[in-house]
Design brief:
The chain is α+β, with helices and mostly antiparallel strands. It has 13 helices and 19 strands. The strands form 5 sheets. Strands 14, 15, 16, 17, 18 and 19 form a 6-stranded antiparallel beta sheet that branches. Strands 12-11-10-9-13 form a 5-stranded antiparallel beta sheet, with helices on one face. Strands 2-1-7-8 form a 4-stranded parallel beta sheet. Helix 3 packs parallel to helix 5, helix 5 crosses helix 7 and helix 7 runs antiparallel to helix 8. The chain is globular. It starts with 5 loop residues before the first helix and ends in a 6-residue tail after the last helix.
Length: 453
């Protein structure tokens, strides 16, 4: 292959099916200038790996909308059409040849790809395309058949971004699931032996908090008890009735497809006085008789029934996970949980998230500590890691996730799984075996064959 660049040689070199390592190209589907993509590319450079080939979500979704396929999108990127630049340099340098399933040669990647799907968030163009995709897919398949807000397909692509506003999350999630399913179908059509780092079907389950907790429970993984009434909870009144029947005075109401504490409410009722309080990041604004909902990035407290009922009506219509608000282990005046990264069956980086409120997400300016700094002993961390690895093992077709684990505030704490985040490896200022999260993951993949049972 004289005269070829090293990247071209890697793209064109065949890889044996039995040797699924990172000597093959890594196809990364993500947002090119996102901190996740940049972090992964920088990590690969630091440990001497070729850059991943980045297929932007925006370009893929536009190609589909115009009647093309995933391979068309890859080919256009390789030919320089729709090229996205990272740090001033093109993220793919020149064409190489791709084999379709029928072995016809076209421009693209010529080996069995390892495919990493990254988070689609933080890019407005992608959000609009997913809302469009959610609108054109079966409208009758609304979560639980409830009456969620819908944005007509013809309006989705002209939406103007309002900072923090939460647009039709049920519709967005339907679009995201359709995106995952089509990626899976087309990747396996054109690369029958392709491997996903995290299986698209698994990602869809992980994203739906209700299905994920049900899935974990079915695999004997400890999760907080959920509110399970005989009839669907459609609104605030149904929620109050179900809580009273179950004897739950404190619950977490979570938007089923939310992330980063978006749509999470810590809600409690005083059983004696009937007073209620809802703590959440969701802000509300009434405009011309219609309430718009926002992720404000800070916690708010609602105590008026009129506000709480409007919030709960919206959450229940969009699809909500409702679980018992359990007492977390504490450190001083703060409660905490742990984000534990698991990759390739190994427990790696861990961060303790402390908060003086019930919601511990770090972007809410909560405190972060290493487990040793928080005083967690070996026995406690063994319990956290065992629980996290059990949660990951419930998804045998997926390789890594950030697992949120809580230790109960009991005399003998038990570990419970709160969330499984397929994109939960973006952890700052923490190392494991001297490596950052992306470096550690890439080293694991390089050293060990990537095979599923």
């Amino acid at each position: 292959m004289s005269g070829m660049t090293e990247m071209e040689e890697n793209l064109q070199s065949p890889v044996k099916d039995s040797d699924m390592t990172l000597e093959q190209p890594l196809l990364l589907i993500g947002n090119p200038n996102n901190r996740r993509t940049l972090g992964l590319q920088e990590a690969r450079q630091r440990i001497g790996l070729q850059p991943a080939f980045v297929l932007p979500y925006a370009h893929l979704l536009k190609t589909w909308r115009r009647g093309g396929t995933m391979v068309d999108a890859v080919q256009q990127c390789l030919e320089g059409r729709g090229t996205t630049c990272m740090q001033g340099e093109p993220w793919i340098s020149s064409p190489a040849s791709m084999l379709y399933a029928n072995h016809d040669s076209v421009h693209g990647v010529n080996s069995i790809p390892l495919i990493r799907l990254d988070a689609p968030g933080e890019e407005w163009e992608v959000e609009r395309e997913l809302l469009f995709l959610g609108a054109v897919n079966d409208v009758s398949s609304l979560i639980d058949g409830l009456s969620a807000r819908m944005i007509p397909a013809e309006q989705t692509l002209t939406l103007e971004q309002e900072w923090g506003r939460i647009y039709a999350p049920n519709q967005w999630f339907r679009g995201w699931k359709a995106c995952l399913e089509r990626i899976r179908q087309e990747a396996l059509e054109y690369w029958p032996n392709a491997r996903f780092m995290n299986d698209p079907d698994d990602i869809a389950i992980m994203f739906d908090k209700r299905k994920c907790q049900q899935h974990l429970s079915a695999h004997s993984v400890h999760v907080p008890p959920t509110l399970q009434p005989s009839e669907p909870i459609r609104n605030y009144a149904d929620l109050r009735t179900a809580m009273k029947t179950a004897g739950m005075n404190r619950v977490f109401v979570k938007l089923a497809c939310g992330s980063g504490a978006s749509g999470v409410v810590a809600y409690q009722i005083n059983p004696r006085t009937g007073a209620e309080i809802a703590i959440t990041t969701v802000g509300m604004e009434r405009i011309q008789g219609k309430i718009n909902f926002y992720n404000e990035g800070r916690l708010r407290r609602y105590t008026h029934t009129s506000e709480i009922s409007a919030l709960m009506d919206w959450l229940c219509a969009e699809g909500a996970q409702i679980e018992r608000w359990m007492a977390k282990a504490s450190l001083g005046s703060s409660v905490f949980d742990i984000r534990q990264l698991v990759a390739g069956g190994q427990a790696g980086h861990a961060i303790v998230r402390l908060s003086q409120t019930p919601i511990t997400n770090l972007h809410l300016r909560n405190e972060r500590l290493l487990p040793a700094e928080a005083g967690l002993d070996e026995q406690q961390m063994n319990g956290v890691q065992t629980a996290a690895k059990a949660a990951m093992a419930a998804f045998p077709n997926s390789w890594s996730a950030g697992i949120d684990v809580m230790l109960s505030g009991d005399t003998e704490p038990r570990a419970y799984i709160l969330d499984v985040n397929p994109f939960g490896d973006l952890l700052y200022r923490v190392q494991h075996n001297g490596l950052g999260t992306y470096e550690w993951e890439m080293e694991l993949l390089r050293k060990e064959p990537y095979n599923y049972d």
